[in-house]
What does this fold into?
Amino acid sequence: MRLAYWNGALWAIGSGLASSQLVVYLAMAFDAPQIGLGIGLLLAAPHLVGVLRLAAPALIGRLGGRKRFLIAAYVASGVVLAALPAAAAPGRLPSAGASLAALVGLWCAYHLLEYLGTVALWSWLADLVPPAVRGRFFGRRERWMAFGQAAAMLGGAWLLAAWRRSRPDEPPWIGYSVAAALGAAFVLAAVIPLVWMPDRTTRQARGAAVTIGQWLAPWRDRRLWGLLCFQCWISFFNGLAQAPQNYYQDKVLELSLPVMLCLRVALRWGQWAVAPGVGRAADRAGNRPVIAASLLVIAQGPLFYALATPQQPWWITGAWGCWIAWVGLNVGLPNLLLGLSPRRADTPYIAVWLATAGLCHGLSTVWGGSLLDHYRGQTFAWLGGTLGYCQAAFLLVWIMESLGVLVLLWLVREPPVAARMAAAGPPDAPRS
It folds into this structure.
């Protein structure tokens, strides 16, 4: 479990340096037409190709088991990320549109390889970690990842600011490319702890083929359907806000990348502080109450974006404070999914859940980018005043994410805590 923590921390450092925020700013440096749709595609395309995670269980069986498949997928993802800055540099290809397309393609390939490996990783962790302490394990791993991302984003913000001061005549995208290359190095380093981690000799670990019955089991499981419907609800409306949010903070509020990275650092530091407590709460009270309480806080974030103006941009700090509560979903949802999955055939469940949620998020993000291009110059009446398109989108997402709590309580079920703990063993033995 300690090796899993190290893997998460190193990967988080790489992810923090080569963040989606940095890649969005790199895309804006191309100054391509239809930038709203371009941002939407950049944010959504990894989720859309992520539907190919459904092939992960079969690939694991064909390529020699979880450990070998996971290491190969993560190494390949790091190599693709390392190639991204050079291949997608502005001016290297004939047009801004071609550069943007190359950036989107490489960003997709990086995420697809990472997503395929994550299916194997979750199945591996499900065998390594006793169910009685799985919530605490995910909470502590989330803490390591929050620390790694926060440190990387803080270092990235300092690096970009120093680069701009020392090289004022150079275009900003060069600094972005340096940060992305450093991120790729840490993504590759995150593979080292996985080499040392032991793999239990289950059928999936040995690379046995997935049967037709195991493939169909997730689609027949009513408990999983409830979890899928809830996840798709949250993914859809969260994706709908992505393009307006990125456009609004860059083009309307005119917030620089170092400022946005600092906000992300504050977010991850907040999650670092609360993650272990959230994991303990999930083990003791159940995952559903933790997810419901977290979502109620998360849903208020878009409201703060709607209140922000170029004269008062500081309102968005309230949104980033609310989004610390994502740690509740980051801990509770995987824990709940693994609890619903059969012990010896969990990779189809993991693949179906991740692919379906990613598809909903990706489609809504593309749609949100297209709507932004079409309506961003229009205004809408609201309570006797007028709102821009971005503000109207934020209010819609605020309402629908708040209603997501009712969707959770209506559709999602989990075994009673007492029965789950009795089946899993004493809560404090062994400790994570």
Q: What stands out?
A: The chain is about 75% helix and 0% strand.
